[in-house]
């Protein structure tokens, strides 16, 4: 018998899936003797193998199960060969932090809205029911992947009140209210 090192001949492509969907990954390898195939999730919380054959099925995937999955083919002829598949799990925005803030008149004030979402959330701000436009006098809106910051350079009495941050992506939207008040 001629020993042949393992070789992965076919592996699933990177995939993007909505939370709750089902994922099926495949890893086919050749070699002599036939290689043993295992799948594992590359993540700090992951322990050991999650599949001991060519197929990995995940039903009702959660956001915690996103990341890289590694297929390993080994047959003791040489070191195992490994390849990875990236699984992106999409989910609607979830606002994790939105605090009211007290600021005296004439001072600089900041309202912060933090949200996690995949794909990243788009943010909009409203005062009462009126949308705040970027570049409005005395205001600055900074949007990043995981938060939006509303800055008042010189707080006036008129700025006090209720503000709503709306975070949205293709899967949905959510909002949180906060108050800018005097000290």
UniProtKB/TrEMBL annotation:
GO terms for cellular component: plasma membrane; side of membrane. Residues 6-88, 92-181 form the Ig-like domain. Belongs to the immunoglobulin superfamily. IgLON family. It is a lipid-anchor; GPI-anchor. SMART domains: IG, IGc2. One of its GO terms (biological process) is cell adhesion. InterPro entries: Ig-like_dom, Ig-like_dom_sf, Ig-like_fold, Ig_sub, Ig_sub2, IgLON_domain, Immunoglobulin_dom. It is found in: Cell membrane. The gene is Cepu1. Keywords: Cell adhesion, Cell membrane, Disulfide bond, Glycoprotein, GPI-anchor, Immunoglobulin domain, Lipoprotein, Membrane, Repeat, Signal. Gene3D superfamilies: Immunoglobulins. It comes from Machaerirhynchus nigripectus. This is CEPU1 protein. Pfam families: ig, Ig_3.
């Amino acid at each position: 018998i001629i020993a042949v090192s393992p070789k992965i001949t076919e592996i699933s492509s990177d995939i993007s899936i909505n939370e709750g969907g089902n994922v099926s990954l495949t890893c086919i390898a050749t070699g002599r003797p036939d290689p043993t195939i295992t799948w594992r999730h590359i993540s700090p919380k992951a322990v050991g193998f999650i599949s001991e054959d060519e197929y990995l099925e995940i039903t009702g995937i959660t956001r915690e199960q996103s990341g890289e999955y590694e297929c390993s083919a080994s047959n003791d002829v040489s070191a195992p060969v490994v390849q990875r598949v990236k699984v992106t799990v999409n989910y609607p925005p979830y606002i994790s932090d939105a605090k009211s803030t007290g600021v005296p008149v004439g001072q600089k004030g900041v309202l912060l809205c933090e949200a996690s979402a995949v794909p990243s959330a788009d943010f909009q701000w409203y005062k009462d029911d009126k949308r705040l436009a970027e570049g409005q006098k005395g205001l600055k809106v900074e949007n990043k992947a995981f938060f939006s910051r509303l800055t008042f350079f010189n707080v006036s009495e008129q700025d006090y009140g209720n503000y709503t941050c709306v975070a949205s992506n293709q899967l949905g939207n959510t909002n949180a209210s906060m108050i800018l008040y005097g000290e």
